[in-house]
Design brief:
CATH topology: TIM Barrel
Strand content: 15-25%
Bound molecules: (5S)-5-amino-3-OXO-hexanoic acid, zinc ion
Number of helices: 9
Structural class: alpha/beta
């Protein structure tokens, strides 16, 4: 099946944008050996996931000891290397780790990525708290508009959807002109990862917005299937899921992308190319 530049499959419904969240900030390399933590490992993952059907890579990086970092030099090198090696949309995390300061999270945009995550509210995050107060959200959003970095609005709870409406009403449209959201479901402390909650959250999104969904841990499959059934896009990756099936660890990000792409094809909504994703999201090609 072919796709046109709007990301629409020619003989069926709209194509599926697949994002790979390759690393995250939570898992340790010692516990999850498949986690890409060096730049070489990340570039290899990006190439494999691109071949498997990903169009966007959501990026957290690690330091020389494989600990989460927002070091600006490393972030710049990462954006550069991923652009050289692939045509994926490079979306840097501004969420970082729960221990990162607001100033370091704002500075992520100085690495000039194509896109970034922008979480629309504070949420309990397991035993921790992922802090996103209104003042920080506004400051980060203003910086995305100023720098022309296309935000993806991360929504962990229904209250975050209300905050997204407030943000758009007060500060206007995002860089790229299109609102794209990601429902992050199944975080202990956020909205549950089930079909009823997904449908409720989608019905509350701003008119014209597109969205993907990701289910953390064992909610990955129910959320993926529910998202496909109501026209959503998909995010998968080791940031969100380290178990492929009961008792079987994920061996690579690519196998999660392959599974997502296969399910999307079964749903007659095959994986979207990076070029189609750029057109959909309003992300210029900086290469
Ligand atoms: N690591 C979490 C605290 C994002 O990337 O913007 C935040 C997170 C969201 O992963
Ligand atoms: Zn993330």
């Amino acid at each position: 099946m072919t796709t046109d530049t709007s990301g629409t499959a020619k003989s069926s419904g709209p194509a599926t944008l697949i994002t790979v969240a390759a690393t995250g900030a939570e898992s340790e390399k010692a516990a999850v050996p498949a986690l890409p933590v060096t730049l070489d490992e990340l570039v290899t993952t990006a190439k494999e996931c691109s071949a498997a059907g990903a169009a966007v890579i959501h990026v957290h990086i690690r330091d020389a000891e494989a600990r989460p970092t927002l070091d600006l030099g490393r972030l710049k090198d990462t954006v550069h290397a991923l652009r050289e090696a692939t045509d994926l949309i490079v979306q840097l995390s501004t969420g970082g780790a729960v221990t990162d300061s607001y100033s370091r999270r704002l500075a992520v945009l100085d690495a000039q990525p194509d896109a970034c995550s922008l979480t629309c509210g504070t949420v309990n995050f397991g035993d921790d708290v992922f802090m996103n107060p209104w003042g920080f959200i506004k400051e980060l959003y203003a910086k995305t508009q100023q720098y022309g970095v296309v935000p993806e609005f991360e929504l962990f709870d229904l209250g975050h959807v209300a905050t997204l409406h407030r943000l758009l009403a007060e500060m206007g449209p995002p860089a790229g002109g299109h609102v794209h959201c990601d429902l992050v479901m199944g975080v202990p402390g956020g909205m549950p990862g089930d079909a009823a909650t997904l449908v409720r959250a989608v019905s509350a999104l701003p008119a014209g917005a597109t969205w993907s969904a990701t289910g953390i841990g064992r909610t990955t499959l129910p959320v993926m299937l529910a998202a496909l059934s109501v026209g959503g896009h998909l995010r998968v990756g080791l940031e969100d899921t380290v178990t492929f099936a009961r008792g079987r660890a994920v061996q690579s990000n690519a196998e999660l992308v392959e599974r997502a792409a296969a399910l999307a094809s079964l749903a007659q909504r095959p994986a979207m190319s990076p070029a189609a994703a750029r057109a959909l999201l309003g992300v210029p090609d900086h290469r």
